[in-house]
Specification:
The protein has about 425 residues and is α/β, with parallel strands linked by helices. Helices cover about 25% and strands about 25% of the residues. The protein has 2 domains: about 325 residues, Rossmann fold; about 80 residues, GMP Synthetase, Chain A, domain 3 (2-Layer Sandwich), CATH 3.30.300. It is built from 10 helices and 20 strands.
Length: about 425
Protein backbone atom coordinates (compact mmCIF):
# COMPACT_ATOMS: atom_id res chain seq x y z
CA UNK A 1 0.00 0.00 0.00
CA UNK A 2 1.12 3.54 -0.75
CA UNK A 3 2.04 6.00 1.94
CA UNK A 4 -0.58 8.77 1.91
CA UNK A 5 -0.43 12.48 2.68
CA UNK A 6 -3.67 12.61 4.69
CA UNK A 7 -5.91 10.01 6.42
CA UNK A 8 -8.92 11.11 4.34
CA UNK A 9 -7.42 9.28 1.37
CA UNK A 10 -8.29 6.00 3.11
CA UNK A 11 -11.72 6.89 4.50
CA UNK A 12 -14.59 4.48 4.01
CA UNK A 13 -17.38 5.59 1.69
CA UNK A 14 -19.66 6.36 4.64
CA UNK A 15 -16.96 8.45 6.36
CA UNK A 16 -16.31 10.39 3.17
CA UNK A 17 -19.96 11.08 2.47
CA UNK A 18 -20.67 12.15 6.08
CA UNK A 19 -17.75 14.57 5.97
CA UNK A 20 -18.83 15.96 2.59
CA UNK A 21 -22.42 16.48 3.76
CA UNK A 22 -21.23 18.37 6.85
CA UNK A 23 -18.78 20.39 4.83
CA UNK A 24 -21.40 21.28 2.22
CA UNK A 25 -23.76 22.65 4.91
CA UNK A 26 -20.89 24.62 6.49
CA UNK A 27 -19.99 26.12 3.12
CA UNK A 28 -23.62 26.99 2.39
CA UNK A 29 -24.00 28.63 5.80
CA UNK A 30 -20.87 30.74 5.38
CA UNK A 31 -21.65 31.65 1.79
CA UNK A 32 -25.10 32.90 2.74
CA UNK A 33 -23.64 36.24 3.81
CA UNK A 34 -21.37 36.73 0.81
CA UNK A 35 -22.29 34.48 -2.16
CA UNK A 36 -25.87 35.21 -3.27
CA UNK A 37 -25.42 33.12 -6.44
CA UNK A 38 -24.91 29.95 -4.38
CA UNK A 39 -27.89 30.60 -2.12
CA UNK A 40 -30.12 31.39 -5.11
CA UNK A 41 -29.16 28.16 -6.90
CA UNK A 42 -29.90 26.08 -3.80
CA UNK A 43 -33.26 27.69 -3.11
CA UNK A 44 -34.36 27.68 -6.75
CA UNK A 45 -33.84 23.92 -6.65
CA UNK A 46 -35.92 23.68 -3.47
CA UNK A 47 -32.93 22.94 -1.24
CA UNK A 48 -32.56 24.29 2.30
CA UNK A 49 -28.94 25.51 2.79
CA UNK A 50 -29.06 24.26 6.38
CA UNK A 51 -30.11 20.72 5.40
CA UNK A 52 -28.63 20.27 1.93
CA UNK A 53 -26.80 17.00 1.18
CA UNK A 54 -24.47 15.95 -1.59
CA UNK A 55 -27.14 13.59 -2.93
CA UNK A 56 -29.61 16.46 -3.20
CA UNK A 57 -27.35 18.48 -5.47
CA UNK A 58 -28.40 16.50 -8.54
CA UNK A 59 -31.58 18.62 -8.77
CA UNK A 60 -29.48 21.72 -9.52
CA UNK A 61 -28.75 22.54 -13.19
CA UNK A 62 -25.12 22.33 -14.26
CA UNK A 63 -23.22 25.64 -14.24
CA UNK A 64 -21.35 25.65 -17.55
CA UNK A 65 -17.76 26.88 -17.61
CA UNK A 66 -18.30 28.67 -20.92
CA UNK A 67 -21.03 30.80 -19.30
CA UNK A 68 -18.79 31.93 -16.45
CA UNK A 69 -17.28 34.97 -18.22
CA UNK A 70 -20.75 36.43 -18.86
CA UNK A 71 -21.88 35.63 -15.29
CA UNK A 72 -18.83 37.35 -13.85
CA UNK A 73 -19.35 40.44 -16.01
CA UNK A 74 -22.83 40.84 -14.51
CA UNK A 75 -21.39 41.11 -10.99
CA UNK A 76 -17.66 41.70 -11.24
CA UNK A 77 -15.38 40.09 -10.54
CA UNK A 78 -16.79 36.70 -9.40
CA UNK A 79 -20.45 36.80 -10.40
CA UNK A 80 -21.81 36.51 -6.84
CA UNK A 81 -19.91 33.29 -6.10
CA UNK A 82 -17.26 34.63 -3.72
CA UNK A 83 -17.96 33.16 -0.30
CA UNK A 84 -15.74 35.48 1.76
CA UNK A 85 -15.04 39.22 1.93
CA UNK A 86 -12.32 40.34 -0.49
CA UNK A 87 -10.06 40.81 2.55
CA UNK A 88 -10.10 37.02 2.83
CA UNK A 89 -8.28 36.64 -0.49
CA UNK A 90 -4.56 36.31 -1.05
CA UNK A 91 -4.55 36.77 -4.84
CA UNK A 92 -6.84 37.20 -7.85
CA UNK A 93 -5.97 35.66 -11.23
CA UNK A 94 -7.25 36.14 -14.77
CA UNK A 95 -7.50 33.01 -16.89
CA UNK A 96 -8.42 32.79 -20.59
CA UNK A 97 -12.10 33.47 -21.18
CA UNK A 98 -11.55 35.87 -19.49
CA UNK A 99 -12.37 34.27 -16.13
CA UNK A 100 -11.31 35.66 -12.75
CA UNK A 101 -10.13 33.12 -10.18
CA UNK A 102 -9.76 33.90 -6.45
CA UNK A 103 -7.14 32.41 -4.14
CA UNK A 104 -7.89 32.16 -0.43
CA UNK A 105 -5.39 32.47 2.39
CA UNK A 106 -5.35 28.84 3.53
CA UNK A 107 -2.11 26.87 3.27
CA UNK A 108 -2.20 24.73 0.10
CA UNK A 109 -5.44 26.46 -0.86
CA UNK A 110 -5.56 24.61 -4.22
CA UNK A 111 -5.09 21.19 -2.45
CA UNK A 112 -2.28 19.86 -4.65
CA UNK A 113 -0.03 18.63 -1.81
CA UNK A 114 -1.69 15.15 -1.72
CA UNK A 115 -1.27 14.88 -5.49
CA UNK A 116 2.42 15.76 -5.39
CA UNK A 117 2.99 13.37 -2.49
CA UNK A 118 1.23 10.57 -4.38
CA UNK A 119 3.52 11.30 -7.33
CA UNK A 120 6.55 10.59 -5.15
CA UNK A 121 7.69 14.10 -4.23
CA UNK A 122 8.95 14.20 -0.65
CA UNK A 123 10.11 16.87 1.84
CA UNK A 124 13.44 18.42 0.92
CA UNK A 125 13.12 17.54 -2.78
CA UNK A 126 14.31 20.55 -4.76
CA UNK A 127 11.56 21.05 -7.35
CA UNK A 128 11.55 22.94 -10.65
CA UNK A 129 8.17 24.66 -11.08
CA UNK A 130 7.78 25.52 -14.76
CA UNK A 131 4.24 26.94 -14.58
CA UNK A 132 3.65 30.67 -14.98
CA UNK A 133 3.34 32.89 -11.95
CA UNK A 134 1.79 35.72 -13.94
CA UNK A 135 -2.01 36.25 -14.24
CA UNK A 136 -2.92 32.53 -14.39
CA UNK A 137 -2.81 30.59 -11.09
CA UNK A 138 -0.85 27.43 -11.96
CA UNK A 139 2.55 28.64 -10.73
CA UNK A 140 1.16 29.65 -7.35
CA UNK A 141 -0.97 26.49 -7.12
CA UNK A 142 2.10 24.29 -7.06
CA UNK A 143 4.32 26.74 -5.21
CA UNK A 144 1.98 26.63 -2.21
CA UNK A 145 1.60 22.84 -2.41
CA UNK A 146 5.36 22.36 -2.48
CA UNK A 147 5.75 24.66 0.51
CA UNK A 148 3.22 22.50 2.37
CA UNK A 149 5.46 19.51 1.58
CA UNK A 150 8.54 21.39 2.86
CA UNK A 151 10.07 21.35 -0.63
CA UNK A 152 12.21 24.27 -1.78
CA UNK A 153 11.01 25.60 -5.12
CA UNK A 154 12.91 26.87 -8.14
CA UNK A 155 10.33 29.19 -9.69
CA UNK A 156 11.57 29.01 -13.27
CA UNK A 157 8.23 29.51 -15.03
CA UNK A 158 7.60 28.39 -18.63
CA UNK A 159 9.79 28.68 -21.71
CA UNK A 160 13.47 29.60 -22.03
CA UNK A 161 14.65 26.04 -22.57
CA UNK A 162 18.33 26.98 -22.47
CA UNK A 163 17.98 28.48 -19.00
CA UNK A 164 15.99 25.47 -17.78
CA UNK A 165 18.75 23.13 -18.98
CA UNK A 166 21.33 25.24 -17.15
CA UNK A 167 19.29 24.90 -13.95
CA UNK A 168 19.26 21.13 -14.36
CA UNK A 169 23.04 21.15 -14.56
CA UNK A 170 23.70 23.71 -11.83
CA UNK A 171 21.26 22.60 -9.13
CA UNK A 172 20.49 19.23 -7.49
CA UNK A 173 16.93 19.24 -8.83
CA UNK A 174 15.04 16.04 -8.03
CA UNK A 175 11.45 17.04 -8.89
CA UNK A 176 9.65 18.69 -11.80
CA UNK A 177 6.22 20.29 -12.08
CA UNK A 178 4.82 21.33 -15.46
CA UNK A 179 3.36 19.97 -18.68
CA UNK A 180 4.55 16.62 -20.04
CA UNK A 181 5.61 18.12 -23.36
CA UNK A 182 7.81 20.71 -21.66
CA UNK A 183 9.41 18.08 -19.43
CA UNK A 184 10.30 16.14 -22.59
CA UNK A 185 11.61 19.31 -24.26
CA UNK A 186 14.06 20.25 -21.52
CA UNK A 187 15.26 16.67 -20.96
CA UNK A 188 15.91 16.19 -24.67
CA UNK A 189 17.68 19.57 -24.80
CA UNK A 190 19.76 18.58 -21.76
CA UNK A 191 20.74 15.31 -23.44
CA UNK A 192 21.74 17.14 -26.60
CA UNK A 193 23.84 19.58 -24.54
CA UNK A 194 25.33 16.63 -22.59
CA UNK A 195 24.03 18.18 -19.36
CA UNK A 196 23.57 15.64 -16.57
CA UNK A 197 20.48 15.89 -14.39
CA UNK A 198 19.23 14.38 -11.14
CA UNK A 199 15.49 14.54 -11.74
CA UNK A 200 13.75 11.60 -10.10
CA UNK A 201 10.04 12.41 -10.35
CA UNK A 202 7.81 14.60 -12.49
CA UNK A 203 4.26 15.72 -11.76
CA UNK A 204 2.51 16.78 -14.96
CA UNK A 205 -0.85 18.37 -15.63
CA UNK A 206 -2.74 20.58 -18.11
CA UNK A 207 -2.04 18.32 -21.11
CA UNK A 208 -2.81 14.76 -22.10
CA UNK A 209 -0.03 12.39 -21.01
CA UNK A 210 0.39 9.59 -23.53
CA UNK A 211 1.72 6.26 -22.29
CA UNK A 212 4.41 6.34 -24.97
CA UNK A 213 5.72 9.64 -23.62
CA UNK A 214 5.54 8.40 -20.02
CA UNK A 215 7.53 5.32 -21.00
CA UNK A 216 10.12 7.37 -22.87
CA UNK A 217 10.62 9.77 -19.96
CA UNK A 218 11.21 6.88 -17.58
CA UNK A 219 13.30 4.58 -19.80
CA UNK A 220 15.45 7.20 -21.55
CA UNK A 221 15.75 9.83 -18.84
CA UNK A 222 15.04 8.00 -15.57
CA UNK A 223 12.14 10.24 -14.54
CA UNK A 224 9.03 8.62 -13.04
CA UNK A 225 6.03 10.65 -14.18
CA UNK A 226 2.60 10.90 -12.55
CA UNK A 227 -0.26 13.08 -13.75
CA UNK A 228 -2.97 15.11 -12.10
CA UNK A 229 -6.20 16.78 -13.13
CA UNK A 230 -7.45 20.16 -12.00
CA UNK A 231 -8.69 23.53 -13.19
CA UNK A 232 -8.03 27.17 -12.38
CA UNK A 233 -11.59 27.47 -11.01
CA UNK A 234 -11.49 24.40 -8.76
CA UNK A 235 -7.88 23.52 -7.98
CA UNK A 236 -6.98 19.85 -7.62
CA UNK A 237 -9.68 17.39 -8.68
CA UNK A 238 -7.88 14.04 -9.06
CA UNK A 239 -4.39 12.55 -9.23
CA UNK A 240 -2.49 9.35 -9.96
CA UNK A 241 -0.86 7.06 -7.44
CA UNK A 242 2.03 4.62 -7.95
CA UNK A 243 -0.32 2.01 -9.45
CA UNK A 244 -1.40 4.31 -12.30
CA UNK A 245 -4.89 2.80 -12.61
CA UNK A 246 -6.73 6.08 -13.05
CA UNK A 247 -6.78 9.20 -10.90
CA UNK A 248 -8.06 9.38 -7.31
CA UNK A 249 -10.66 12.09 -6.71
CA UNK A 250 -9.92 14.50 -3.85
CA UNK A 251 -12.35 14.13 -0.95
CA UNK A 252 -12.73 17.94 -0.94
CA UNK A 253 -14.66 17.91 -4.21
CA UNK A 254 -17.72 15.97 -5.34
CA UNK A 255 -17.34 14.65 -8.88
CA UNK A 256 -20.18 13.44 -11.11
CA UNK A 257 -19.90 11.99 -14.63
CA UNK A 258 -22.92 13.33 -16.49
CA UNK A 259 -24.60 13.54 -19.86
CA UNK A 260 -23.36 16.87 -21.31
CA UNK A 261 -26.83 17.67 -22.68
CA UNK A 262 -29.04 16.77 -19.71
CA UNK A 263 -26.75 16.98 -16.68
CA UNK A 264 -27.96 13.56 -15.49
CA UNK A 265 -25.61 10.78 -14.47
CA UNK A 266 -24.45 8.44 -17.23
CA UNK A 267 -24.45 4.67 -16.90
CA UNK A 268 -21.43 3.01 -15.31
CA UNK A 269 -18.61 2.71 -17.82
CA UNK A 270 -20.02 5.35 -20.18
CA UNK A 271 -18.13 8.58 -20.94
CA UNK A 272 -19.56 11.83 -19.66
CA UNK A 273 -18.76 15.38 -18.62
CA UNK A 274 -16.89 15.94 -15.37
CA UNK A 275 -19.18 18.01 -13.13
CA UNK A 276 -17.63 19.19 -9.87
CA UNK A 277 -18.96 20.67 -6.65
CA UNK A 278 -16.20 22.48 -4.76
CA UNK A 279 -16.54 22.12 -0.98
CA UNK A 280 -14.62 25.36 -0.70
CA UNK A 281 -15.99 28.23 1.40
CA UNK A 282 -13.95 30.80 -0.57
CA UNK A 283 -15.28 29.90 -4.02
CA UNK A 284 -18.13 27.40 -3.58
CA UNK A 285 -18.98 26.50 -7.18
CA UNK A 286 -21.88 24.03 -7.20
CA UNK A 287 -22.29 21.47 -10.02
CA UNK A 288 -19.69 23.20 -12.16
CA UNK A 289 -19.39 21.69 -15.63
CA UNK A 290 -15.70 21.56 -16.49
CA UNK A 291 -16.29 20.78 -20.17
CA UNK A 292 -13.97 17.76 -19.87
CA UNK A 293 -15.09 14.27 -20.88
CA UNK A 294 -13.99 11.35 -18.70
CA UNK A 295 -14.61 7.74 -17.79
CA UNK A 296 -15.19 6.77 -14.18
CA UNK A 297 -12.88 4.12 -12.73
CA UNK A 298 -14.15 0.94 -11.08
CA UNK A 299 -12.94 -1.50 -8.46
CA UNK A 300 -10.57 -0.93 -5.50
CA UNK A 301 -7.08 0.41 -6.09
CA UNK A 302 -4.16 -1.65 -4.74
CA UNK A 303 -2.54 1.54 -3.44
CA UNK A 304 -5.01 1.60 -0.52
CA UNK A 305 -6.76 4.86 -1.40
CA UNK A 306 -10.50 4.32 -1.20
CA UNK A 307 -12.13 7.26 -2.97
CA UNK A 308 -13.71 7.28 -6.43
CA UNK A 309 -11.41 7.41 -9.46
CA UNK A 310 -11.42 8.84 -12.95
CA UNK A 311 -10.19 6.16 -15.35
CA UNK A 312 -9.18 8.64 -18.03
CA UNK A 313 -9.77 12.16 -19.33
CA UNK A 314 -10.97 11.77 -22.92
CA UNK A 315 -11.11 15.31 -24.28
CA UNK A 316 -13.42 18.32 -24.35
CA UNK A 317 -17.20 18.63 -24.60
CA UNK A 318 -17.54 22.11 -26.05
CA UNK A 319 -15.70 24.25 -28.57
CA UNK A 320 -12.83 25.29 -26.28
CA UNK A 321 -9.61 23.34 -26.81
CA UNK A 322 -6.61 23.04 -24.51
CA UNK A 323 -3.28 23.69 -26.25
CA UNK A 324 0.01 23.43 -24.37
CA UNK A 325 -1.92 23.58 -21.12
CA UNK A 326 -3.92 26.72 -22.00
CA UNK A 327 -7.57 26.89 -23.09
CA UNK A 328 -8.30 28.50 -26.44
CA UNK A 329 -11.89 29.79 -26.52
CA UNK A 330 -13.59 30.65 -29.84
CA UNK A 331 -15.18 33.75 -28.29
CA UNK A 332 -11.78 35.03 -27.20
CA UNK A 333 -10.31 34.44 -30.66
CA UNK A 334 -13.37 36.09 -32.25
CA UNK A 335 -12.69 39.20 -30.22
CA UNK A 336 -9.03 39.20 -31.24
CA UNK A 337 -9.76 38.65 -34.93
CA UNK A 338 -12.32 41.47 -34.96
CA UNK A 339 -9.36 43.86 -34.86
CA UNK A 340 -8.45 42.84 -38.42
CA UNK A 341 -11.18 44.07 -40.77
CA UNK A 342 -9.52 42.40 -43.75
CA UNK A 343 -10.44 38.96 -42.33
CA UNK A 344 -13.80 37.44 -43.27
CA UNK A 345 -13.48 34.18 -41.33
CA UNK A 346 -10.83 32.08 -39.71
CA UNK A 347 -10.11 28.56 -38.55
CA UNK A 348 -7.60 27.33 -35.98
CA UNK A 349 -6.21 23.83 -36.47
CA UNK A 350 -4.45 22.08 -33.60
CA UNK A 351 -2.10 19.22 -34.46
CA UNK A 352 0.56 17.26 -32.64
CA UNK A 353 4.12 16.48 -33.72
CA UNK A 354 5.69 13.90 -31.47
CA UNK A 355 4.76 15.16 -28.01
CA UNK A 356 4.37 18.84 -28.94
CA UNK A 357 1.14 20.73 -29.74
CA UNK A 358 1.05 22.94 -32.84
CA UNK A 359 -1.48 25.73 -33.44
CA UNK A 360 -2.11 26.91 -36.99
CA UNK A 361 -4.57 29.65 -38.02
CA UNK A 362 -6.00 30.09 -41.52
CA UNK A 363 -7.33 33.61 -42.08
CA UNK A 364 -9.60 34.17 -45.08
CA UNK A 365 -9.62 37.69 -46.50
CA UNK A 366 -12.76 39.61 -47.39
CA UNK A 367 -14.02 39.10 -50.98
CA UNK A 368 -12.23 41.44 -53.34
CA UNK A 369 -9.77 42.56 -50.67
CA UNK A 370 -6.02 42.43 -51.03
CA UNK A 371 -4.16 41.30 -47.94
CA UNK A 372 -1.38 43.66 -46.80
CA UNK A 373 2.04 42.03 -46.75
CA UNK A 374 2.25 42.23 -42.96
CA UNK A 375 -1.27 40.93 -42.23
CA UNK A 376 -0.13 37.44 -41.29
CA UNK A 377 2.43 38.74 -38.81
CA UNK A 378 -0.06 41.20 -37.30
CA UNK A 379 -2.64 38.41 -36.86
CA UNK A 380 0.00 36.14 -35.34
CA UNK A 381 0.88 38.78 -32.74
CA UNK A 382 -2.79 39.55 -31.99
CA UNK A 383 -3.51 35.86 -31.49
CA UNK A 384 -0.52 35.42 -29.20
CA UNK A 385 -1.57 38.44 -27.12
CA UNK A 386 -5.13 37.08 -26.82
CA UNK A 387 -4.48 33.44 -25.93
CA UNK A 388 -0.83 33.65 -24.75
CA UNK A 389 0.23 30.93 -27.19
CA UNK A 390 2.47 31.09 -30.23
CA UNK A 391 1.05 29.86 -33.52
CA UNK A 392 1.55 30.18 -37.25
CA UNK A 393 -0.77 32.04 -39.64
CA UNK A 394 -1.63 31.48 -43.30
CA UNK A 395 -3.61 34.05 -45.31
CA UNK A 396 -5.97 32.30 -47.72
CA UNK A 397 -8.24 33.68 -50.50
CA UNK A 398 -11.94 34.38 -50.03
CA UNK A 399 -14.05 31.23 -50.35
CA UNK A 400 -11.35 28.88 -49.04
CA UNK A 401 -13.13 28.08 -45.77
CA UNK A 402 -16.68 26.70 -45.77
CA UNK A 403 -19.29 29.02 -44.29
CA UNK A 404 -20.05 26.44 -41.58
CA UNK A 405 -16.39 25.67 -40.79
CA UNK A 406 -15.68 25.11 -37.08
CA UNK A 407 -13.67 27.89 -35.49
CA UNK A 408 -11.28 25.43 -33.82
CA UNK A 409 -10.45 21.96 -35.15
CA UNK A 410 -8.51 19.52 -32.99
CA UNK A 411 -6.70 16.97 -35.14
CA UNK A 412 -4.53 15.50 -32.39
CA UNK A 413 -4.57 11.78 -31.65
CA UNK A 414 -3.55 10.12 -28.39
CA UNK A 415 -2.11 6.68 -27.81
Amino acid sequence: MDEVWQPAERWSESERRAWQDRRLREVAAQAGAHAPALVERLRTAGLDPERVTVQGLTSIPVLRKDTLPAIQRQAMPFGGWLGVPTSGLLRVFRSPGPIFDPEGRDDDYWRFAPALFAAGIRPADLVLNTFAYHLTPAGHMFDSALRALSCPVVASGPGNTEAQVALLGDLPLTGFVGTPSFLATILEAAAEAKTAHRLRVGFVIAEMLSESLRQRLQEHFGVHVRQGYGTADLGSIAYECSVKQGMHVSHEVVVEITDPHTGTHVEAGAPGEVVVTALNPVYPLIRFGTGDLALEGSGPCPCGRTGPRLARILGRVGDAVKVRGMFVHPAEVDQAMSRHREVARYQIVVTRTGHDDNMFLRAEVQPGAAAPDDLGERIRQTLQDAVRLRGTVEIVPAGTLPADAKKIVDQRTWD
